[in-house]
Automatic annotation (TrEMBL):
Keywords on record: Aminopeptidase, Hydrolase, Metal-binding, Protease, Stress response, Transit peptide
InterPro entries linked to this entry: Leucine_aapep/pepB, Macro_dom-like, Peptidase_M17_C, Peptidase_M17_leu_NH2_pept, Peptidase_M17_N
Subunit structure: Homohexamer (dimer of homotrimers).
Naturally occurring in which organism (per UniProt): Capsicum annuum (Capsicum pepper)
UniProt protein name: Leucine aminopeptidase, chloroplastic
4Fe-4S recorded as keyword: no
GO molecular function: manganese ion binding; metalloaminopeptidase activity; peptidase activity
Superkingdom classification of source: Eukaryota
GO biological process: proteolysis; response to wounding
Amino acid sequence: MAALRVSSALASSSTSCSSSSSSSFHCYPSIFTKLQSSPFWSLSISVTPLYSRKAKRMAHSIAYATLGLTQPNPSDAPKISFAAKEIDLVEWKGDILAVGATEKDVARDECSKFKNPLLQKLDSKLSGLLSEASFEEDFSGKSGQSTVLRLPGLGSKRIALVGLGSLTSSTTAYRTAAAKSAQASNIAVALASTDGLSIESKLSSASAITTGALLGIFEDNRFKSESKKPTLKSLDILGLGTGTEIEKKIKHAADVCAGVILGRELVNAPANVLTPAVLAEEAKKIASTYNDVLSANILDVEQCTKLKMGSYLAVAAASANPAHFIHLCYKPSSGEIKKKIALVGKGLTFDSGGYNIKTGPGCSIELMKFDMGGAAAVLGAAKALGQIKPSGVEVHFIVAACENMISGTGMRPGDIITASNGKTIEVNNTDAEGRLTLADALVYACNQGAEKIVDLATLTGACVVALGPSIAGIFTPSDDLAKEVVAASEVSGEKLWRMPMEESYWDNMKSGVADMVNTGGRQGGAITAALFLKQFVDEKVQWMHIDLAGPVWSDKKKNATGFGVSTLVEWVLKNSTN
């Protein structure tokens, strides 16, 4: 008989899952919490000479739990007080007055002076220094362009010009300005031109300003030993109206941003911290926080086995960290439920590729913590919707969380696995694992009675090749669902592009010994992946697959984007009775 002993020193370095705010998580395997409660800070595991699989898993998980001894710092999610006001810009007192200007707004006369009345007024108050300084800074009003000037003569200490391009509701532009204003304590934002703007346009601009500020100053510093914290405490929105409607719009934008920030944090968290178990704990925390409308059901390996989820469990088989199947359910606290929909997210907390291991330039194995970007979007949406509380719609949030690793117990190329709908799959590439987990998740979603399903996954490099890093591909047989989701993305500002589902490509997915193979080669790889997923969706259900492998991560910022959360929230709201 063999035994494994964990020393008191090892046990004392452990912590458990905890949270200090609604958008932060600090989770470490809880097994050590149980050890510390014992008078003997040690653990003995009896192992038979055959080394049972369960014992080996436990031994591996104890060793893996201490990897790096990393303990995230508390989340620094922005806490900003927003207010909509109607006051004269020159009278506003604070650190920075930011004026959003389109390219048309900054047109100048023959004397290089502004033609726009509001900019003229500010320039006159500043003795012409605003037009002069902005001209020298080559400010033209292009989207994302901004300049901050310290000029005497106003109630504010500094004035900023923010380029909006051709749109007054440019979230990207306000985000850039907010990032530059992060060390100010209070700022005000106004538009150079509000004449002719509809009430809806003004509300959209207020929403964009709120979103730009919250996401612009947010930095995920949980894993840095030292960081500079933003000092922005308040933001006044000037000249866009006051009252209940604009206050609701500001709150809605803030609620969505809370979900986006959670999505970013989940994707940014490394695989040695964010294991499938920790992701499940985060999901349970969301449900607990909004327990008036959300409930959680986490299925373990044994329960998934009873549901015959052979496709999902095959992917998880090699990892020392067990699979956790996450199911949150949103039900309004009152009123009739008229629609049932499901959001399904790919939840690979790390993807090594399995026996078809990721190797060579461009394989991005070091970034494979983001292979749960679909799950992050789904859970971020759950958090936002828990705050917004739409009526008339039941929403299921589903994530088949696991790791794709390598071991003697792992899935091999050539294995035949069986999904929960009875279909068999010949595994010709273990690195096409996400679709295998989604297969059982989609069957499960259909079994919940969902009428519409949207799945999100960092599924294929082929989609990134086709659409680049900023655009997600969408695949659906339903024109109506495509219109719904695209309309939601136009509100959120996230870029989607509908891709074809060429049925003739399914010939590449046929197997000689099973119902199908799991990958059909490089040509049309994103399309064949979508066709594979279609095999696990009931024909009566409207279904869409979103491949967000490109926009889930920013190579420039080396950070997660939170992509998908905003569009999902807007789509659910379009299906609600709010």
